[in-house]
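A further point concerns the way the authors explain their paired sequence and structure data. Showing the layout once, in full, would remove most of the difficulty. For illustration, here is how one protein appears when written out as sequence plus structure tokens:
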Amino acid sequence: MRKGKRIGVVIPALNEEQAVGRVIADIPAWVDEIVVVDNGSHDGTAQAARGAGARVVAERERGYGAACQAGIHALSAPDIVVFLDGDYSDRPEEMAALIDPIVAGEADFVVGSRVRGQRGPGALTPQQRFGNWLACRLIRRIWGTICSDLGPFRAIRTDALQGLNLKDRAYGWTVEMQLKAAERGLKYLEVPVSYRARIGVSKISGTLRGSLLAGITILTVIARSAWRAHRSA
């Protein structure tokens, strides 16, 4: 528990046997619940996560959003939900920087910005840097929200998260969360976070196909949301 608030952590994971245990070990002791969502791994990801002390749930439908949704449903009514990746690229020990502004009432939703923080060599690929720049530029132009990153390391009040009614089951999960937060007027904050090269090869940015699909999905989510906002206006 962090200053009277229950904290739940969701870690979507796909073939992260070598990394997920290290991620869990670095999560602060004040976190109340850790759920790892095994998104169809064919290695020992689930066993490694259980061995490190996390609860493991399975989500056979492949997709980042699908895994995050499964993790949310598995949590036991936390006040704040934290998302981070299972590849050891995020630094769980920096979690207080995301949690404390929410606890203090200064924010409803906090994203850890890899762009504003310290990055290790090779941590962000050129396609990730370009994709972040383009998406954030569009978000600022259309919704007026200033952001620098769509990073996976993020925290949000549970009631605010539920109010977003997120639908994307794949790569568009993170950008949909940021767009709907802007539309609903949530208090949004970015904090710099450290980022290192992941253990293993990314299923998204590590391949040309994955990068293209992710980019197309993110731009599609932005376009649909902009069109919906335009029609509503």
